[in-house]
Design brief:
three-stranded antiparallel β-sheet; 2 domains; 10 strands; single chain; 6 helices; globular; alpha+beta
């Protein structure tokens, strides 16, 4: 076999692996509830079957989160992104960054539509309602430990209407909305001054798709 043939075979194998996520053959026992706090913490015992006929017995603990929506606010007239700052205990403990810069985000309530949840969270955390939503990304932020599934949207908002303080009082939530240029936000990420994963992905999506925003807005409005 020539080097060229070997390269073609490798390329074919790599393309097959990148066909995307796929179902797994697994026998599950559980869940065993380990703790019920702000989120349920569960344990599963499982047998994972591999394509070559082998199998692995595993014990896995997960945190149940469910569906989450995130919204990157954007004011096209002022060319500004709308972000929030709020306290996060985990970032305080891990990196002494309790005042985390984020995009609007929150849980999807049972029976709630994704876009309705996105609008509600935007009103609660940024103090403004988006007049249009554009779907961005769908991903799992931490599949090794949580079943959280996130849907991100670009929300077209009026940055001039932002309050100094927002947040859902029934959740003891306090947020501080603000608007900056996309370039300033990306520079903060590049310098390591902002570490929130939702924020980083949303900003990079906007940077990659900024030139075709008029087309995306038109397509979203037509749906």
């Amino acid at each position: 076999m020539t080097t060229r043939d070997m390269t073609k075979d490798m390329t074919k194998d790599m393309a097959g692996n990148m066909a995307g996520d796929m179902p797994a053959q697994v026998d599950l026992e559980g869940p065993e509830l380990l703790a019920r706090g702000f989120r349920p913490y569960e344990r599963y015992r499982l047998m994972l079957h591999h394509g070559d006929g082998t199998r692995d017995a595993q014990v896995r603990d997960i945190v149940r989160v469910g569906g989450v929506v995130g919204v990157l606010g954007y004011d096209p007239l002022r060319d500004l992104v709308v972000l929030i700052r709020q306290f996060r205990l985990t970032s305080h403990l891990a990196e002494n960054r309790g005042g985390l810069v984020e995009i609007v985000a929150g849980l999807v309530e049972p029976g709630e539509q994704l876009e309705a949840a996105a609008i509600r969270e935007c009103i609660e955390e940024a103090g403004v309602a988006p007049r249009q939503l554009v779907p961005m990304l769908h991903f799992m932020p931490s599949p090794g430990v949580s079943d959280e599934v996130a849907w991100l949207y670009l929300g077209i908002v009026d940055a001039g209407a932002l309050p100094e303080r927002a947040g859902a009082s029934h959740e003891t939530e306090t947020t501080h909305p603000f608007a900056v240029t996309l370039e300033a936000a990306l520079a903060a990420v590049a310098d390591g001054r902002c570490v929130n994963g939702y924020l980083i992905m949303a900003l990079h999506w906007l940077a990659l798709n900024r030139a075709r925003l008029p087309q995306l807005l038109a397509e979203a409005a037509a749906v």
